[in-house]
Amino acid sequence: MLGKKFFVSDCEGPITVNDNAFEMAGHFIEDGEKFFQILSHYDDILVDEIKRPGYNAGSTLKLILPFLKAYGATNLNMMEFSSRNVLLIPGARATLGLLQFIMPSYIVSTSYEHYIRALCDLTNFSFNRCYCTQLDLDNHPLSDEDRNKLKEFRLSILSNPEFDNLERIFCEEIPGMEIGSLLTEVKPVGGEAKKEAVLDIMAQKDYQACDLMYVGDSITDVEPLQYARDNGGIAVSFNGNEFALDNASLAVISDNTTITSILADLFNRYDRDMVLEFASSFKKDPEKAVQDHPVNPQLAFKLAETNTRLELITPDNLEELKEDSCKFRKEVRGESIGGLG
């Protein structure tokens, strides 16, 4: 039976191991993983340091697009690549199945729609309850001349990854090309756009902010995590980096999503206070916390087989959590993906 509470999660990190755009860059573009990392760092600077007005976290996903096009990416082969490579966090299929049954549940992801469709096909999660970056790459023509220019820009960025060089290429050179339309027309769902997606869900269904549980892990989740935390909801960092932890109320460090199921179930059946009380007890004695709180017995059994840490985030433990969560994040998702903003 559906309750008034609602659940919203990022995809990559809390549900899947992948960074789909990073992986596609590595697949299609020569030295693509290194190239993507440079663009991701540039994106982080624009969001976290310069704070460029109107620029959202996660815009690496539009910056990389002209280069994916130049190296042969199409709607079809992006979909095929995504379908072959979805890698779930252990427990995620069961978590998504449970959450769809017990409460209104949504995915709000910066990922391209090709990847989110592949995830939904794999897990039977409803694509109609997903917000993601919409993209029709085939609708953007690319001349041979511009293709060669983009390949030259790639070499320039790899040899000179300084901020001023990327500014010149992305703010002066590419906007003057026909393919530059990708930079203006594609709207990655990250940062403030994720918060807007949450607000859209609330407006459509008449939900309240205090009834929101949001799970995120990166710089693209800062605004919705902050919104949930500051408005009486539950804000969970799942194997999050420093950006997520700075804006969440709970830290989960785990190799399995069963703890997400437990927190959502407790929140749905009871309230925020029950979740916070459980988290506080869990840090002291996980086994006793499960015994002393109304945790679903099947979920309790599954949790015992996982490597899970759950803590309330406080000023006293924040730095330790950042160090431990970032380290574990890299163990679960790999050094390269785990190190991205």
Could you characterize what this model shows?
- With 341 residues, this protein is α/β, with parallel strands linked by helices.
- It folds into 2 domains: 6-16 and 89-133 and 190-338, HAD superfamily/HAD-like (Rossmann fold); 20-85 and 140-185, AF1437-like domain superfamily (AF1437-like domain fold), CATH 1.10.3870.
- It has 19 helices and 7 strands.
- The chain has helices spanning 20-28, 32-50, 60-63, 65-70, 75-85, 92-102, 113-123, 144-159, 163-173, 181-185, 192-205, 222-230, 242-245, 258-269, 272-284, 286-292, 297-303, 318-333, 335-338; strands at residues 6-9, 105-112, 130-133, 212-216, 234-238, 250-254, 308-312.
- It has a 7-stranded mixed beta sheet with strand order 3-2-1-4-5-6-7, sandwiched between helices.
- The mean pLDDT is 96.
Secondary structure elements and their pairing?
Blueprint: E1 6-9, H1 20-28, H2 32-50, H3 60-63, H4 65-70, H5 75-85, H6 92-102, E2 105-112, H7 113-123, E3 130-133, H8 144-159, H9 163-173, H10 181-185, H11 192-205, E4 212-216, H12 222-230, E5 234-238, H13 242-245, E6 250-254, H14 258-269, H15 272-284, H16 286-292, H17 297-303, E7 308-312, H18 318-333, H19 335-338
Parallel strand pairs: 1-2, 1-4, 2-3, 4-5, 5-6
Antiparallel strand pairs: 6-7
Helix pairs in contact: 1-2, 5-7, 6-14, 11-12, 14-15, 14-17, 15-16
InterPro entries: HAD-like_sf, HAD_sf, NiFe_hyd_3_EhaR
Protein name: Haloacid dehalogenase-like hydrolase
Organism: Methanobacterium formicicum (strain DSM 3637 / PP1)
List descriptors.
341 residues, Rossmann fold, seven-stranded mixed beta sheet, 19 helices, 7 strands, HAD-like_sf, Haloacid dehalogenase-like hydrolase, NiFe_hyd_3_EhaR, HAD_sf
